[in-house]
Amino acid sequence: MTVSGQYYIYLLANRKHGTLYVGMTNDLIRRVYEHKSDCIEGFTKKYAVHRLVYYEVFADPYNAISREKALKSWKREWKIALVEKGNPEWVDLYDSLSGL
Description:
Mean pLDDT: 94
Strand content: 15-25%
Strand order of the largest sheet: 2-1-3
Order of helices and strands: EEHHEHHH
Shape: globular
CATH topology: GIY-YIG endonuclease
C-alpha cells in the first residue's frame, strides 16, 4: 500500500497552559477550522479548545499516527514544554497558516 501527501500531528489549547488536545490529520487548515467553528461534537467543542499552538509535518501517515499516539501518552508537563520550546507565547498558529 502506497500513501502520499502530508500528514500532521497538532496540539490545540484553550489558553496558555490550559486544556490540551492532540490530533492528527492530512489537512491541517481544514481540521483546525472544524475545531474553531465547533462543527463537530466532542472534546474541543465542549472545552472550547480552538488555539493551534504546535504542529509537526510527516510524509508518512504511519509515522504521524505513531507520533500522535506517543504524544497522547506523554505527561502534561512534557506537552507544555514541547509547545513552549517553539511557541513560548502560545500564539495561535492557525492565522499564519491560513493567511488571515
